[in-house]
Amino acid sequence: MPGKNSAPFPAFLTALSIVVAIFLIAFAVGKYPVSPADLLRSVFARLTGRDAGLPEAVEIVIWNIRLPRVTAGILVGAALAAAGAAYQNMFRNPLVSPDILGVSAGAGFGATLGIFFGFSLTAIQVIAFVCGLLAVGVVYAISGLVRRHDPVLVLVLAGIAVGTLLNAGVSLFKILSDPHSQQLSNIVFWLLGSLNGIDTRDLASAAPLVLIGLAPMILLRWRVNLLSLPDEEAAALGVEVARLRLVLIVAATLITAAVVSIAGIVGWVGLVVPHAARFLVGPNFSRLLPASLLLGAGFVVATDTLARTLVVIELPLGIVTAMIGAPFFLYLLARTGKTE
Amino acid sequence: MKRRTLLRALACVPMLAPLGGTSVFAQSVKSNLIRTFGRIPPPSDIKRVFVAGGPAAILVAILAPHKLLGWPSVSWMHSEARNAFGPPLRDLPVLGQLAGRGSTMPAEKLLDIKPDLIVDAGSVDETYLSAAKRVNEQTGIPYVVIAGRLPDSARQLRETAQLLDVEARGNALADYAEEILSEAARVRETIPVEKRPRVYYGRGLEGLETGMLGSLHMEAIDAAGAFNVAAQGGQKIGVARVSLEQVIGWAPDIILTQDPNFASRVLEDPRWRTIPAVRANRILCAPTFPFGWLDVPPSINRLAGVFWLFAHLYGIGKDDLERRTTEFLRLFYGIERQA
Amino acid sequence: MNVIETRDLSIGYGRKVVTRSLAFDVKAGEVLCLLGPNGCGKTTLFKTLLGLLPPLSGEVRVLGETIAGWSRLAFAQRVAYMPQAHPGVFPFTVNEIVLMGRTAHIGRFATPSGHDRKIAADCLEMLGISHLGECSYTAISGGERQLALIARALAQQATVLVMDEPTASLDFGNQIRILGHIDRLRHQGITILMSTHQPEHALRVADRIALLAPGSITGIGAPQDVATPDKLADLYGVTEDEIAAYLPAGGLKHDHCSH
Q1: Phi and psi (nearest 5°) for A237?
Q2: What is the pTM of this model?
């Protein structure tokens, strides 16, 4: 893609305006009818600090339901796409997603346990978050024990093995839970991801963790590029490879576990979005990261808007991201195949 | 040795099945509620009954507790339910359930415990029927599937009782069920549609799962004549997730649930504040002892939910609710005091 | 002064020893050329000297300091490594690949500055591949990748350059150009340790040649003393006549002119 990288600025501007448009549309549509006029009046009233004179239900829908939900879409999308971009670079593989080291499998297992034993919503989120971190911790510890192979390969294989084990655990609890009670559908729905019911408290707990995880990615944005070289080359260029990799794994795991614990497992975002971003601005992480953040936010807000408006019921977000993400991915694959 | 002979004999059954299938052996039980697979033994010979899932377990536990071999699972039971039951029910082991690919009961173990009959109850569709047929063909154990809609409760009790040779008890309970259901019909007749309370039934972690039009899980609420706000979607999709915006838009007068966590949370959560039910503090949390009163599992247990709803929705028999509850628990479950 | 010193060095992977008891030095400002058959451990030796592979026993000192005493950053500021070229996974531009050579000189949390870009551009120009700057590294030919990696090593502005077969997969013209560059770098006072499969290249640029046979170094010294037909025949397992017939007449007797 020669020439693409030299002019990333217009691409960014285009992406930014598309995302802002998606954000506005997402804000304007929903199951509770809010006219654009009422929406504008309410926003204007908030800005000027006056009373909009609208029914309280309209105010609650706009500010307590849609705003947290759209914000959660931005947070979840940006976080998963950033983690995916970092992992694709680090594992030198464009088909890697943030789940590769078992964070989602761990969080899914934790949530399943919490649902099975009937814990409260908050407790389920905490267990999911902790189990996500633990799963990656175990994978990393295992990879430390195996020294005779390529460390990246060992990480991936350990991640697959631990993930498989945890998914087996999830399946076991699915079988044990009763089909007539709500447990099974709760587990299934959780595993497919949803932003339904997210409130400001969820955002307040997840957003700081995401920002903490993003900080090292932003700071180390140049050095992350070097991780896509073979370890020895990166080391010879002055990078402490093992340490940098650990920092990125911790950051990406924190980010992913934080959003998965509030939104469930939303697939495809971390895989497809970095791809699309790389297609637009090239692989340089200094540009790939902001592009991924932007496109990820736009993608999830758009898919979640579809998930909550497409049919009369609420669709799991993971289903919509897959329905849109997979064909888009194939389209990108076909296009890159032609240009190279 | 003996089992091997049995298995060999069973190998012939699949060839016969397409010819005979259900109709040849169904003559002993004439019913459109009960579908049978295999040769059903005479009622007096049925001593050991294995139940495939929750609804059937409740049906058999109510009618013939001494014939029940075990519980298919206990996840839908109130934590104190087993201790409250009398001797045969209290001491039953947990065996596992039969639910097609979701079965936790191995066919070999099924043969080992030698039931005279397998009973399944609940929604009847081709998936359930073909799974029942397959189990019958594989194990040779006769299998019955009972359609478990709430309005048919009386007939279910009567006909299942015939099958299990406990007709007297079945008739008594069926009379009781008929009384509740005809009371429900009267209530529905007397209260005009526009006067019926608009209810939202919240299930799931966030209370954002609900039963749509005609859902099996809404039968107790439908029987009590309440108007299910989610039925406005007109979709026959059973249970589905909805968004909070949608619930606010439906503006239910009453929120029903079986989850005390959700019931208390909904009053504190500012997002639910504008909903009329929350404003009027009309969050009704149904009991779940020993089984769910509105739902979970969808079986005879829901009869209690119907008179409970009369009391709470319309104030009908409100003073009598304690007595009726005690009576129901004693009559159906043999539980002497209220939890 | 010795830039690299090895004492009783054994190298290899895990329990598999490739070469034992190495003891040789690389002197400041010289071009030391490593000759040896396939699989004799040239790349293993380079990785050990660069601290990318732990020595099995013995000691390596670079610029007076043991390998363990160096941080990767400080080491990369002084020693550059040009590996054999791999295509890579992501379509970084050649510019970006060369800029990666600047990593040791830019802050941990910084990105390359205009100054770094200028250096990278100069390195590309020096190698005559400025036109490739905006091309994708994954889409150019193997020879072009080789040149880009040399540019990256130059951008590192190190005083020691370790090159693993810099002339492999280059066309004839580029081979000549690269040897010219190596000669120029030596005149700038840069120490070069390189491997090659072509003795005539070694003869063309090396101050000293080391013969690395599987297991040990069989000779090290001035080209005319080491790259003799008999020793080469011994090293590569062919006859002296074959060597003589293959290399240009008198090529091995040619007295290499040192500055």
Answers
A1: -90, 5
A2: 0.84
